[in-house]
Design a protein that fits this description.
The protein is about 20% helix and about 50% strand. The protein has about 260 residues and is α+β, with helices and mostly antiparallel strands.
């Protein structure tokens, strides 16, 4: 059996398992556990190593592909660290990720909900690019926010256009490793509304790195403030783009502790 914790941030859900329980091919395990009907169901699988106040995460998307970082997944793991180690508000949790070491300050705890302010690091390789896709020419803000991001500023697309363009952009030849995609509408200098197509997952309700990238794009190329709320279908996160990097504030809920009965 594999011990499993399920947590989510604004509906973006993850399964967290101890590295000691992993036997066999991790991408196969990720696909089985994350399957919405045949498994437990999640957007991603996080394999966890843990020491006091610190954890290591290895992330696989629901389709079994690896990912460097998830801001929401990292927050879910920090919530598990706080829960298991009974840490107090004000404590800083350190997470070692495929995109480097990140720190999260615990701001509040209410029941199974944990609110953190996470230091996400600085955006890298930020630029605007013209992308021809599905018969359209789009201007996108492209960057790495620990993982690849493609943000299209402007009015949000309807459902059909979102699905068509999101899928095509996520696998566009410009992005050899694939990319996360956000469509972002600057509603006010301090407010951006987004919809998200996540690499290796598809449409999702929220994304921590996607919210961070959308805020950077809105500030750099859309006339927005460098401190703003980013509203996704699952809820609102607060982003600050400061001289020393991007800070993301939001919550995670721990919702399940149990065991996966592996195939014999």
């Amino acid at each position: 059996m594999i011990q499993v914790t399920k947590a989510h941030a604004y509906g973006n859900d993850f399964l967290l398992i101890p590295s000691a329980d992993v036997k066999g091919d991790v991408p196969t395990i990720a696909r089985a556990l994350c399957h919405r009907h045949l498994g437990i169901g999640a957007d991603g699988l996080i394999v966890v190593g843990m020491t006091p106040g610190t954890a290591t995460m290895q992330l696989w998307n629901a389709d079994g592909s690896p990912s460097e970082l998830s801001g929401n997944g990292m927050r879910c793991l920090a919530a598990l660290v706080v829960r298991l180690q009974r840490l107090l508000v004000g404590t800083t949790v350190t997470i070692n990720t495929g995109a480097g070491r990140k720190t999260l300050e615990l701001l509040q705890r209410e029941g199974v909900r944990y609110t953190f302010r996470a230091a996400m690091g600085a955006p890298e390789e930020l630029r605007q690019a013209q992308i021809s896709v599905e018969g359209e020419s789009l201007t996108a803000s492209v960057m790495r926010m620990g993982n690849p991001q493609c943000v299209v500023l402007g009015p949000l697309p309807d459902g059909e256009r979102f699905n068509r363009l999101g899928r095509a952009l996520a696998t566009h030849p410009m992005f050899p490793e694939g990319t996360n995609v956000e469509f972002a509408h600057v509603e006010a200098p301090d407010r951006v509304r987004i919809v998200i197509w996540e690499r290796g997952v598809g449409p999702t309700t929220s994304s921590g790195t996607g919210a961070s990238a959308s805020a950077v794009a809105a500030a750099a190329h859309g006339g927005a403030s460098r401190q703003l709320d980013v509203i996704a279908p699952g809820g609102t996160q607060h982003v600050e783009w400061r001289e020393d990097g991007v800070y993301l504030t939001g919550w995670a809920d721990v919702v399940l502790e149990g065991a996966w009965v592996a195939d014999s």
